[in-house]
Amino acid sequence: MVNGTEDFIRLWTIHPKTLYEKLRSEKIFHCVPEQSDWVTEFGFYPAYNWMVEQMCKHIGPPSPGIRYPIWAWHTLEWKHAKPDLRRSEFQ
C-alpha cells in the first residue's frame, strides 16, 4: 500500500461493446482468438503463441480453459495514458 491506497497497475484494452457488456454482467471473459481480427485476419497466431510460451516459462501455466491472454497496454509510445482511439490501428 502506498499512502493508504492499494497498489495497482492500470492497463488499457480495446474490445467491442458486447465484450464490455459481458464483462459487466458475468464479471469475467476470456480471449477467444477465433473472434479476433488481429489473430485470424492479420496472422498474429505466431505472436500470441510466442507470448503464451514466454508467460508459461516466467509465470507458469494458465488456468484451465485459457488459451491466450487478453491484450492490454501499460505504455504506448512511451506514454502511460489512455490510448488515442482515433489511431488507425484502433479503428
Question: What can you see in these coordinates?
Answer:
The protein is an all-alpha fold and 91 residues long. The chain is 31% helix and 0% strand. It contains three helices and no strands. It has helices spanning 17-26, 37-40, 45-58. It is globular, with a radius of gyration of 15 Å.
Q: What is the percent of helical residues? A: 25-40%
Structural category: mainly alpha
H/E order of the elements? HHH
Unreliable residue stretches: none
Strand content: under 5%
- Average pLDDT confidence is 83
Main beta sheet = none
Gap from first CA to last CA: 37 Å
Say how many strands there are.
0
Task: Describe the global form.
Answer: globular
Using the CA coordinates, give the radius of gyration. Answer: 15 Å
Number of helices: 3
Question: Topology of this structure?
Answer:
Elements: H1 17-26, H2 37-40, H3 45-58
List the main descriptive attributes of the protein structure presented here.
single chain; 31% helix; 3 helices; mainly alpha
Describe the structure in brief.
With 91 residues, the chain is an all-alpha fold.
